[in-house]
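call fold(seq) -> tokens
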Amino acid sequence: MYINQREVAVSALMEITSDGAYNNIALRKALARNNALSRQDKAFVTELVNGALRNLIYLDYVIGRFSKTKAAKMKPFVLGVLRTAVYQIMFMDKTPDFAACDESVKLVKKRGLTGLAPFVNGVLRSVARDKASLGMAESSVEDLCLKYSYPRWIADYWAEHYGFDITARMCRGLHQAPSVSIAVNTLRTDKASLADALRADGVSVRDGLYLDNSLIISGTSDISGLKTFIDGHFFVIDESSMIAAEVLAPPKGAKILDVCSAPGGKACVLACLCGDDAEILAFDIYEHKVWLIEDTLSRLGVTSVTPLIGDATVFDPALEESADCVLLDAPCSGLGLIRKKPEIKYRKTMDDVDELAGLQRRMLANVSRYVAPGGVLVYSVCTISPRECEDVAEWFTENHPFEPVPIKGEFDGRPGISTPRQGCLQVLPVSEEVCADAFFIAKFRRRGVRP
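ret:
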């Protein structure tokens, strides 16, 4: 049975933009509903949806250049067709412009909107004809917002803190398609053996940018079907998340709390660092996410991690001053994940940032009580947001019996890594070379000596 991949893409895009669905979930469901699509067609659908989301504001600007009807006034299906078609014309060199136009007109007619077919055809042919004149400069914050599709508040927020040049570099860096990073399960294999096995399965492999036991992979649409995955030789985790666990640097035999653990990747990195010789309690507030952690542990053969239900905002007296190390990867605005979740750009507000910063402070204040005197606490967030990063770290040391700990110098001078204040490390997407998520990490030590 013939399945129109463009129609699949438009439907998924509408679920995200009109119904508020998450990008990865909407795409996964769309591809599952249409599992007869070829691997090539699935890749095409994925590129259309992700590409349109990355460029939503710019696409609407282009459409508006040739349409008297504003995007907000269009029928959602017609707007979805135009967005995906303009993305093909402007960004997908391998797709002929006439194909993008003709197939879009057919889609509109198929949906029973024949009366709008001339409108769609006219807009798209005008875009194709004039696309050479539709490029954008990068000489102002306003230019960045339009070219890279950012709401103005985000670009202004970044420019105020980092300056225009860094903001422009971050906008470019986050505009790239995301990479897939994996961690080697050193409890079962080594990096060289895993890389060889992946290449034998047709997977492209290269070293991670920052850590010895990370790899960047591509060329596979079904990671979970790989034998090396099934056998537990690796797990998917961004390299920045791995750094947060590495910075904690737990010794063997330590008692470690990972208080916002799901899906469990950092807990597994910690287990590997300790040679599975530790007591690691991995908490999450939701039972179904605890089950996900359990599934991952079972696949990897990790025995030192115990998944538990727990709320990082609620004090548990049984854990008071019990841990050598605590890791809090807190809920945040997620602006460091824009490459993977471009819809974040359009859904977050500064009010969200302020609310989350308050939550982060409450969580830090609570879980810091679990750290034994002399113990270590690491706070991390996957965002580019001073209010959630440096401001939270500064507030914490000013109000709690902790001091910042210098982070070991192996990351000094590495691309995209900076140290905004003592005991802090920041990964920023300032070039195409930096394929990791943007991340902020702060390390603290509790004053005093354990009795």
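The radius of gyration is 24 Å.
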